[in-house]
Design brief:
The chain is an alpha/beta fold and 138 residues long. The protein contains 5 helices and 4 strands; from the N terminus they run E-H-E-H-E-E-H-H-H.
């Protein structure tokens, strides 16, 4: 159900089994089960191409989430730029793997309906990310 793949970058050092348990637990916390969920790790150029082609945005980003969810099941494709994850980690002084896990759950939170376009919803998203990260046990 949850797939981790990479395009144009080496697969990051993740624990897919532990991440799958964590993702399912966080989805359940918001009242969802997990359907077909694809995490695609890529580089900045790939995410820029996806952003341009599908969203008509001409900028780099750390994550793009395509939502195919139903009322009770999260499903989708989540593209994550490992280049941007690394630069974000450096900017905030966080370990790379911590920032990667934050972005992994950020994409899932979008699928549960959480937005982050306003200062208020962004603060709520950050709080939910932190709560989820505290529940991660590798």
């Amino acid at each position: 159900m949850i797939h981790f793949t990479s395009e144009q970058v080496p697969m990051p050092a993740i624990n897919p089994t532990a991440l799958e348990r964590w993702i399912k637990a966080i989805a359940a916390q918001y009242g969802f089960t997990v359907g077909n969920l694809n995490y695609i790790f890529c580089d900045d150029e790939k995410i820029l191409a996806v952003n341009r082609e599908f969203l008509q945005h001409d900028y780099y980003t750390d994550v793009i989430t395509f939502d195919y969810s139903t009322r009770t099941r999260v499903q989708g494709d989540i593209f994550i730029s490992l280049d941007t994850v690394a630069s974000n980690a450096q900017q905030v002084g966080a370990p790379y793997i911590h920032e990667l896990h934050r972005i992994i759950i950020h994409g899932l939170l979008h699928l549960t309906g959480q937005a982050d376009k306003t200062p208020e919803t962004k603060a709520q998203m950050t709080a939910k990310e932190e709560d989820a990260l505290q529940r991660l046990s590798l």
